[in-house]
Amino acid sequence: MLLIALATLASLATIAVLFSVLRAVRVHEPPAPVTHVRHERRRAHPAARDAREAIALVGDALAATHNPRALVPLILEVVTEATGARGAQMLHGGVEVGWFGEAGGRTRPLTLDLASENSDSDTKLLLYPPARGFDVETQKLAEWVAAQAGIALENARLHEEVRRQATTDELTNLVNRRRFIEALETELERAKMFDSPLSVILADLDDFKRINDDHGHHGGDRVLKSFGQLLRAQVRDFDVAARLGGEEFAILLPQTTAEAAAVVAARTRDTLAASPMAVSDDATVRLSASFGIAESSPALTTDELLRRADDALYAAKRAGKNRYVVDATAGVS
After folding, report:
1. Structure confidence at residue 284 (pLDDT)
2. How are the residues of the chain apportioned to helix, strand and coil, as percentages rounded to the nearest 5?
3. I need a surface site. Which of 55, 78, 170, 316 has the fewest CB within 10 A?
4. Please, are residues 285 and 208 in contact by the beta-carbon 8 Å criterion?
5. Is 289 within 8 Å of 204 (Cβ atoms)?
6. How high is the pLDDT of residue 151?
7. Which of 178, 180, 163 is nearest to 67 (CA)?
């Protein structure tokens, strides 16, 4: 909550009067060529020489979003408009992360540091001057804009960190129960809309209490963390692996039948069986896990799908553990 408060206060410091500055700007990752010219030429705007006009322009633009990726094009456009520059370029660690207008060429740019007082980020803003160059007042304005942009970027980083903490399990770095349910609800709607399959796997480490009893909670935490890494390695980029709590985990598999999900569960079980888990720097244990699998259908709600996967999981436990069971209604034996 403290991070949220700090981020909100810092945001309010940059807000002035309303001015809309949302237009398409190219942002990309590759190293910068010598010269860039934007294909969609920006409309000619006079430089915002009046300080109040510039403050209004900058303040609203920087308050428009807390997404760091969305802030980059906004900063580039607004600083170009405010100073009358030909174009602007942003570098992070020496690598270009965005540009606007005409960036590059033979003209020496005005280089400004975007690091705020609370950040040591190596981010720089390069402004390419018009033919007449920048006068002293415009350079001061550019420095002020850069300072505000640095605050906004740090602000966005704080908001992103708060958002990540709210949706990520701290121990395993998998998504938490809250985020998993949100993703499941979204994917269920998508599956219904496109009539595509979707499956859920619930996984529970067998006899995990024994690990805590024999090796302490620190040893148990090491096992949970290792299993989280193992689980992540078994899924595709668009699948969602989560820790729901304790030793219970889940995998959301869009565009996947129960039969295909069973292959994932079997592979995960076999990989776990072949992977000793460290409980200390000089001790390892071998573990097994049980898995329950359920496939969606148009009539199923989120709770019903999870209940079916949970019933299948406990059927696997009752059958002797270290196995997977597919919900019988999925039509897979």
Report:
1. 95
2. 45, 20, 35
3. 170
4. no
5. yes
6. 82
7. 163
Which amino acid would we find at residue 241? A
Q: Measuring CA to CA, which residue among 168, 187, 188 is closest to residue 178? A: 168
Q: Which residues touch 300 (CB under 8 Å, ≥6 apart)?
A: 188, 308
Listed in sequence order, the residues at least 6 apart from 139 whose beta carbon sits closer than 8 Å to its beta carbon are 110
Please list, in sequence order, all residues whose beta carbon lies within 8 angstroms of the beta carbon of residue 270, skipping any fewer than 6 positions away: none
Which two tokens mark 120? Answer: 């040591």
The least confident of 54-63, 203-212, 230-239 is: 54-63
Report the alpha-carbon distance of residue 231 to residue 264 in Å, rounded: 10
pLDDT at position 330 is 59
Phi-psi group of 168: left, alpha or beta (phi > 0 → left; psi -120 to 50 → alpha; rest → beta): beta
Show Cβ contacts of residue 194 under 8 Å, excluding neighbours closer than 6 positions. Answer: none
How confident is the model over 185-195, as a mean pLDDT? 92
Kindly list the distances between the CA atom of residue 60 and the CA atoms of 63, 115, 331, in Å, as whole numbers in the listed order. Answer: 5, 20, 56
Say which of 102, 187, 247, 295 is annotated catalytic: 247
> What's the confidence (pLDDT) of residue 66?
63
Residues 274-294 pLDDT 10s? 999 999 999 999 999 999 999
Supply the pTM of this predicted model: 0.60
Nearest to 184 by CA among 33, 304, 321, 59: 304
Q: What is the DSSP string of 101-129?
A: EEEESSSPPEEEE---TT----EEEEEE-
Residue pair 100/87 in contact (Cβ under 8 Å)? The answer is yes
User: Which helix (H) or strand (E) element contains residue 33?
Assistant: none
In the chain, DSSP assigns E strands to: 35-37, 87-92, 95-104, 110-113, 123-128, 198-205, 240-245, 248-254, 277-280, 283-285, 289-295, 324-326
Indicate if 154 belongs to the active site.
Answer: no
133's CB contacts (< 8 A; 6+ apart) are: none
Walk me through the domains of the chain, giving residue ranges and CATH numbers.
2-167 (3.30.450), 177-330 (3.30.70.270)
